[in-house]
Amino acid sequence: MKTPFTLLAALAFVLIVAAAVVTGSLIAASPALAATAPGAPLDPQTLAWGLAAAAGSTALSALAAGYAVAKVGTAAVGALAEKPELMARLLIFVGLAEGIAIYGLIVSILILNRLG
């Protein structure tokens, strides 16, 4: 039996691959997009996939960051109860876990900038 985390990780991997494919297609289509008039609208299907990729990037990175902070934070509180002098080191680990959400947000901003 698969654990919920394994299923969530598999879903996240599939959506990240889909976002990478959509981003790659946008990059490949950039000469064609640049050739159009500056005010011309994008193909609705391209716009829809780009927005879905941006939303998926933000949502999945936020979910992953929440899970990572929950696991690291629990361990950090347990270690802090035993050795209070580890506070600075433990904050670094929690901050690294929160960085996952920031990376996903940056990727979604890059996708949205590419869409125009």
Sum up the structure in keywords.
116 residues, F1FO ATP Synthase, 0% strand, elongated
Structure description:
The protein has 116 residues and is mainly alpha-helical. The chain has one domain (4-35, 42-115): F1FO ATP Synthase (Up-down Bundle), CATH 1.20.20. Helices cover 85% and strands 0% of the residues. The chain contains four helices and no strands. Helix 1 crosses helix 3 (44-82) and helix 3 runs antiparallel to helix 4 (87-115). The longest helix has 39 residues, at 44-82.
Indicate the low-confidence ranges by residue numbers: none
Number of helices: 4
User: In the CATH scheme, what's the topology name?
Assistant: F1FO ATP Synthase
What is the oligomer described by this structure? single chain
CATH class: Mainly Alpha
How are helices and strands ordered from N to C? HHHH
Overall shape: it is elongated
Radius of gyration from the alpha-carbon trace, in angstroms: 19 Å
Q: Using DSSP, what is the number of strands? A: 0
Strand residues, percent: under 5%
The CATH architecture name reads Up-down Bundle
Query: What composes the largest sheet?
Result: none
SSE class: mainly alpha
Quick structural overview:
With 116 residues, this protein is mostly helical. It is 85% helix and 0% strand. Helix 3 (44-82) packs antiparallel against helix 4 (87-115).
List the helices and strands and how they pair.
Layout: H1 4-28, H2 30-35, H3 44-82, H4 87-115
Helix pairs in contact: 1-3, 3-4
